[in-house]
């Protein structure tokens, strides 16, 4: 795993936690922020996946 994949996964997990807390306390704002973090994390993971693929092609 490269740095983007790790950071992306961490954002995704953090977003899931934030969404869950938002649901627990009834905060739609926190839920939305959590969902947004999840999307950011998934995008960053995909960037890391692409970097891995490109990097392996250059070897």
Termini separation (Å)?
Answer: 16 Å
SSE pattern: HH
Count of DSSP-assigned helices: 2
Question: What is Rg?
Answer: 14 Å
Let me know the average pLDDT: 95
Number of strands: 0
For the report, how would you describe the main beta sheet? Answer: none
As a percent range, the share of helical residues equals over 70%
Specify the structural class: mainly alpha
What is the 3D form? rod-shaped
The stretches of 5 or more residues where confidence is low (pLDDT under 50) are none
* Total domain modules: 1
- Percent of residues in beta strands: under 5%
Domain CsbD-like: 4-53
Protein name: CsbD family protein
InterPro entries: CsbD, YjbJ_sf
Region (Disordered): 21-40
Task: Characterize the structure shown.
With 59 residues, the protein is mainly α. The protein has one domain (3-57). Helices cover 90% and strands 0% of the residues. The protein has helices at residues 3-25, 28-57. Helix 1 runs antiparallel to helix 2. The two termini are 16 Å apart. The mean pLDDT is 95. InterPro entries: CsbD, YjbJ_sf. Belongs to the UPF0337 (CsbD) family. This is CsbD family protein. Residues 4-53 form the CsbD-like domain. It comes from Massilia aerilata.
Structure keywords:
single chain, 59 residues, mainly alpha, 90% helix, rod-shaped
Short recap of the structure:
By secondary structure, the protein is mostly helical. The chain has helices spanning 3-25, 28-57. The protein has 2 helices and no strands.
């Amino acid at each position: 795993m490269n740095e983007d994949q790790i950071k992306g996964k961490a954002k995704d997990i953090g977003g899931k936690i934030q969404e869950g807390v938002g649901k627990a306390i009834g905060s739609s704002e926190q839920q939305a922020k959590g969902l947004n973090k999840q999307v950011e994390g998934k995008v960053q993971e995909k960037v890391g996946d692409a970097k891995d693929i490109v990097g392996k092609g250059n070897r």
